[in-house]
From TrEMBL, chains A, B:
<dbReference type="InterPro" id="IPR008928">
    <property type="entry name" value="6-hairpin_glycosidase_sf"/>
</dbReference>
<dbReference type="GO" id="GO:0005975">
    <property type="term" value="P:carbohydrate metabolic process"/>
</dbReference>
<dbReference type="InterPro" id="IPR012341">
    <property type="entry name" value="6hp_glycosidase-like_sf"/>
</dbReference>
<comment type="similarity">
    <text>Belongs to the N-acylglucosamine 2-epimerase family.</text>
</comment>
<dbReference type="InterPro" id="IPR034116">
    <property type="entry name" value="AGE_dom"/>
</dbReference>
<keyword id="KW-0413">Isomerase</keyword>
<dbReference type="GO" id="GO:0016853">
    <property type="term" value="F:isomerase activity"/>
</dbReference>
<dbReference type="Pfam" id="PF07221">
    <property type="entry name" value="GlcNAc_2-epim"/>
</dbReference>
<dbReference type="InterPro" id="IPR010819">
    <property type="entry name" value="AGE/CE"/>
</dbReference>
<protein>
    <submittedName>
        <fullName>N-acylglucosamine 2-epimerase</fullName>
    </submittedName>
</protein>
Amino acid sequence: MTFHEYATLYQHNLLNDVVPFWLQHSPDKEYGGYFTCLDREGKVFDTDKFIWLQCREVWCFSMLYNKVEKKQEWLDMAIQGAEFLKKHGRDKDGNWYFSLTRTGAPLIAPYNIFSDCFAAMAFGQLYQATGNADYSQIAITTFHNILKRQDNPKGHYSKAMPGTRPLQNFALPMILCNLVLEMETLLDKQLVENTIQQGIHTVMDVFYQKDSGLIMENITPEGQLSDSFEGRLLNPGHGLEAMWFVMDLATRNNDQALITKAKDITLSLLEYGWDQQYGGIFYFLDVKGYPPQQLEWDQKLWWVHIETIISLLKGYLHTGDEKCWQWFEIVHDYTWKHFPDPENGEWFGYLNRQGQPLLPLKGGKWKGCFHVPRGLYQSWTTLQQIAAKHALSTQPK
Amino acid sequence: MTFHEYATLYQHNLLNDVVPFWLQHSPDKEYGGYFTCLDREGKVFDTDKFIWLQCREVWCFSMLYNKVEKKQEWLDMAIQGAEFLKKHGRDKDGNWYFSLTRTGAPLIAPYNIFSDCFAAMAFGQLYQATGNADYSQIAITTFHNILKRQDNPKGHYSKAMPGTRPLQNFALPMILCNLVLEMETLLDKQLVENTIQQGIHTVMDVFYQKDSGLIMENITPEGQLSDSFEGRLLNPGHGLEAMWFVMDLATRNNDQALITKAKDITLSLLEYGWDQQYGGIFYFLDVKGYPPQQLEWDQKLWWVHIETIISLLKGYLHTGDEKCWQWFEIVHDYTWKHFPDPENGEWFGYLNRQGQPLLPLKGGKWKGCFHVPRGLYQSWTTLQQIAAKHALSTQPK
């Protein structure tokens, strides 16, 4: 397949399959917001509304409207979700709940900060589409609330006894690397620069471990390995996803050395996380090879694979390293053979180690309208850039 | 195989394999307490001390001392764990932590009540072995603390917003059915009777659903099905384990009708939970056949299988229902083919759906010295009773 043919495949899957699937099955026309628990055919099997996924779907349709085409249907879809969230999503202090009932009653408390991260992302992107000041206000207020809560994001829900084994977690710094670019136009310039520098430093110097070439999920306050279940934990997909966030930041700053470092870490994480026996990337591993506590460790998840494809393609685009392309072909083949469901549309989310669907769902409590469409969009447009670059180049491919 | 041969198999696995495995690999001779994170060969791979498992190992060696043989080595093993727990296990209000570091520093807060349940069980059993009043005092105080906390066991760690979707959970009533018998001699007679009647009622009338013949994990305050992820959840092993607790209570009260009902539910849960394709009992199912949120739903766990064997054997002993024996042979064959590790001793804990070990561990954060030895003891002695009964009977078997 040529670069152009690959690009077309990702584009068509996005626009003719995945986006129509969510447009058709996901809107709750009675109460607003989205259904995300969709079975193989798109039928709703549960009506709870998980804030991560509600926000991510608002973001997704806003992004498509902003970046792909000014389709009113997409904008309407984003706005109806945002209005539901605006009305029901927050507690009186402006913290975002974890989940709501179908009608919008608060179900699970704001016990973590990621609902807030995806809310800021959603309302920031929707503001770009609408210019509606309510939306920018929600995005900005939420962003500052995240910064305020970032040193103790779980509050009284934290089960760790203070002081015994303090650990820094990778997820928030990683997400901030992406969120700050999403919200760049809404924030003070210096705050943007500081957050970017801090984010890059935390991901690439603190959580990245030079000796192993790996990125840990949890490290000591001094940046060292903690020899505990949490401290030995690797989530290869997390690190692989972060690498394209970093490449985007590095591209913005024209920092070729940082791009190369992120590309090298991508390859290193992928080589480590790849299942030599059955193919695909493991969900969790223990850096010392011990049994991880996560029983789902050997499963193959949709988001891990599509995020890896993005990082490989961006790495190839910006550095030309043929290893990125070779790995892209391997991960692409595995992904397209196992995840998409040509019969009913969209992608399966969860495969067992052998590559068979573990659950028949297209959406649930954690899988919604986000990684697949974002990944297809990112891959499509990156492949287009690769094709354009190679068309200009005298080197045959 | 004859009843007697089966009994001998369970007895020998307990006394010549499983108990020696824990005696050899588990004690922390430097700081006290036990290592439970043991790899395939018994080598320690993590030194954290999980209160559930510390307590359960104290209980196990005390029980063996009380019921099997007055071996000093077993009593010493129990006491050294209990002394570590007595010194480090509780916060200033007497709540039991979830986990400690190797040296005994509190690591994870008392966020659930099951640490306390297993502590009461451990110190109650150890008191029977020693007559040490310190131990009975800890058991009694902890038991009353459980009763005090039972309506809000998670306290401020609960993430559910009050009022939106209140649910009753099966685990605590189920455990109390067992705990109250364990502690019978230490508690006020009327409290014992009330707790037993309440426990039986809750398990057999409230959580048991007549229409389906199943036991739900979570139900509404009115005892109805909640059409939500939590409400649709089935944990067949939980219900199957509870049935032998109920049979023990019914035997104590000489209530044959209750024994028959518990036997019928055992068969009904097992028929529902059995994997027709690969054998073994599923870990989680959704009562409406939807995808469960637990990604480990299709795995085969050691405790589910040994607990089921106990209920089938007790059902057969007390009712003579041949279906119990037929199912026992099926579950026995699956269990002994897949879980025990004759090469290195003890049992694997976690198999994938196909029956292959998912993790090579013999112990970890949740698997310790408890279900296997308790189950082997219960099965061995129940099989002995079955053999004795049949030897007296004129009917050939």
